[in-house]
Amino acid sequence: MLDKLNQWKKSKIKQQPQLTQELDVIPKHVAIIMDGNGRWAKSRGLPRVAGHKQGMENVRTTVKAANKIGIEALTLYAFSTENWKRPPKEVEFLLRLPNQFLSRFLPELIEENVKVTMIGTKTGLPTYTLEAIEEAIEQTKNNTGLVLNFALNYGSRFEMVEAIKHIVDDVAHDKYGKDDITEETVSRYLMTSFLPDPDLLIRTSGELRISNFLLWQIAYSELYFTDVLWPDFTEEHFYQAIEEFSKRSRRFGGV
Ligand code: FPP
User: Is residue 174 a contact partner of residue 144, using CB atoms and an 8 Å limit?
Assistant: First the structure.
């Protein structure tokens, strides 16, 4: 990690006008709650979905920015289990975005060695969402660069309930005993088992909530809140968050 960081510092940082300082550490895994699309649209007299469309464009910008500085994984909260409560037309628009995004940008993601993954429940998602995501997962499965992890129909409490059910089942089938269950066991049963916990969680739009996102995984994540609405969140804003993260002293409960 440090070798990679130093290499990056030497080779890339001088070409990155957006990064204003040399960083001591970059996060491996960044998770983002992309909030504020509706307000962005409203302030322009546009329908809410126009904000989501602009938000999708920003996903591309952020993926490129993350890839450029060697972040290993980016988890984006694209549709929560609670988002089904929105008007049906908005729900449909949101669930068509992965298809739109991947139709346009999958070739670019492949070229940039990005690996697409998903967390969330497939049950209930329409075919047009699932087919697009599954195709992208298949086509990028051997890529070794940035992991672009879409949280789709994802809710952290549901994820934990499912994990508990599986653990109880496995104990009942004598795979291991109750006393063998550790924090690592729980992590292995979560949908994010293939990723390290996020080092940094970013939420845009000024809301100071976690909204049922990665509740177990963010136990020691650094939290970064900004008033900037997601469609306005630029590469520079992203690098500001990374710079802020690099200044934080992470003690994980120690001194
Ligand atoms: C919250 O903003 C945002 C969402 C529920 C959707 C986020 C989705 C995207 C940014 C695009 C996803 C792109 C891909 C490729 C899957 P809000 O609508 O709640 O904003 P508001 O609080 O201002 O109303």
Answer: no
Which residues are bridge partners to 149 per DSSP? 75, 117
pTM of the model: 0.92
With a 6 Å cutoff on the Cβ, whether 102 touches ligand 1 is no
The amino acid that residue 247 corresponds to is K
Instruction: Give the span between the Cα atoms of 4 and 25, in whole angstroms.
Output: 10
Tens-digit pLDDT profile for residues 215-246: 999 999 999 999 999 999 999 999 999 999 99
Ligand 1: centre distance to CA 50 (Å): 10
Cβ–ligand 1 contact at 34 (below 6 Å): yes
Average pLDDT over residues 78-86: 98
Ligand 1 centroid distance, CA of 11 (Å)? 35
Give the bridge partners for 152, in sequence order.
79
pLDDT at 105 over 50: yes
- Residue 55 near ligand 1, beta carbon < 6 Å: yes
Average pLDDT taken over every residue of the chain = 93
Mean pLDDT over 177-187 rounds to 98
* Residue ID of nearest Cα to ligand 1 atom 11: 56
Ligand 1 centre to CA of 138 (Å) is 25
Q: What is the DSSP letter of 85?
A: G
Side-chain-side CA neighbours of 221 within 13 Å: the count stands at 26
